[in-house]
Each structure stands twice: as structure tokens, then as C-alpha cells.
Amino acid sequence: MKAVISGSFDPITRGHVDIICRADRLFDELVVGVAVNSAKNGIFSMEERVDLAEAAVAGMPRVSVAPVEGLLVDFCADQGADVIVRGLRFGGDFDYELQMAHLNKSMSGIETVLLPAGREYGTISSSVIRSAASNGGDVSEFVPEAVARALRAKFPTVRE
């Protein structure tokens, strides 16, 4: 069975990687779909986010990375995916993801699997990482090494 886990991944965090690793154990193939979220002020281009996601999953042979254009359900159909995987951190995430799961199921018949975030990184979000890094904070314990390097390049005041 093939699954897609999507997000803006701007940047990809250790919390994202945890969900990806856990989903990798559940499915035969997993595609990390890097999407655009127009409601977010991103710092990395699509190409950079795809590259950083590829670096983060480099040791996972059944996981691939691809940019998402348009509707997620159309991307899933193009990929031949049977399932959408989404991570949950808080109750608000559940409310939103449940709405999206119902919409996606109605539009395409695709099922959604919701995985709770692990305790270690469950409170970390890309927006918190962006904010901390842009103000000089060391976020290296919360992101893969390639992301930490990319953030230091974007924000030279980031401490190590």
C-alpha cells in the first residue's frame, strides 16, 4: 500500500521526520509531498524544501519526495497512493485534519490516517522554528542537520 504525507515543510523538522519514519513502517511506499501553503510566510523555495526533505529521508529507501501542485487528492491519484497520512500535535490539529479527511474522502475516496506526534517533538512547528531562527536562536536540536545548516545560511545570526 502506498501513502502520501504532505505539508509545506518550511522547514522540515524532527517532528516531521518522526511521523515520516513511523508512517514508513506502516506502508510499503511513502511519498513526502512538499506543498505550498499560501497562508504561511515561508523562507525556503519549493526547490530548497524538496532538497531539505530529501536530505532528511535519505536513509529511507521506501520514501520519496515530490513537489505538490494543485489539490492533494489529485497528487495522490498521480502517485497511485491509497492513503493520506497526517500528523497531529494538538486538539486543534485534529479538528482541522478531520474536516480535511472528510473532504478528501468525499472528493476522491482516499482514506486519511492520523498519527499523533511523538512526545519529544510534539510541540515543535515549522513556524516556531522559522521565528526562533530568524531572531538568532539555535534550533539545531529540533531540525535535521541539513536544515540547521540552511537556516544558518539564511540567518547568519543563528547561534550554534
TrEMBL record:
The record marks H16 as: Transition state stabilizer. Reversibly transfers an adenylyl group from ATP to 4'-phosphopantetheine, yielding dephospho-CoA (dPCoA) and pyrophosphate. The keyword Cytoplasm applies. It comes from the Bacteria. ATP binds at S8, F9, H16, G87, L88, R89, E97, Y121, G122, T123, I124, S125, S126, S127. It comes from Acidipropionibacterium acidipropionici. InterPro entries: Cyt_trans-like, PPAT, Rossmann-like_a/b/a_fold. Substrate binds at S8, K40, L72, R86. PANTHER family: PHOSPHOPANTETHEINE ADENYLYLTRANSFERASE. Homohexamer. This is Phosphopantetheine adenylyltransferase. It catalyses: (R)-4'-phosphopantetheine + ATP + H(+) = 3'-dephospho-CoA + diphosphate. One of its GO terms (cellular component) is cytoplasm.
